[in-house]
Specification:
By secondary structure, the chain is mainly α. 82% of the residues lie in helices and 0% in strands. It contains four helices and no strands. Helix 1 packs antiparallel against helix 2 and helix 2 runs antiparallel to helix 3. The mean pLDDT is 85.
Length: 85
Amino acid sequence: MTEKNDWLRARETVSAYIDAWKDTTPWLQILINHDDIDDVTLALMRLQAAVAVRDASLCRELCAELREDAQHIHHRDAFSLGNVL
């Protein structure tokens, strides 16, 4: 969206993700480390700010950060042999 300069759609999309994340975090905090949840929350807030100032480069960087934070939660808490041992 930012590559196409569709900033309105980018803003709407980030807002939708933030709303969904806010709905998810109360029960997720029971199961997952709070610092990991905070990392995702912060990345979403920073992404929202980058969209607001229309900084495409920063948006790409923050999307990568957000992806890594989400994958970290998945890999860290996945039921796997490496996590059990």
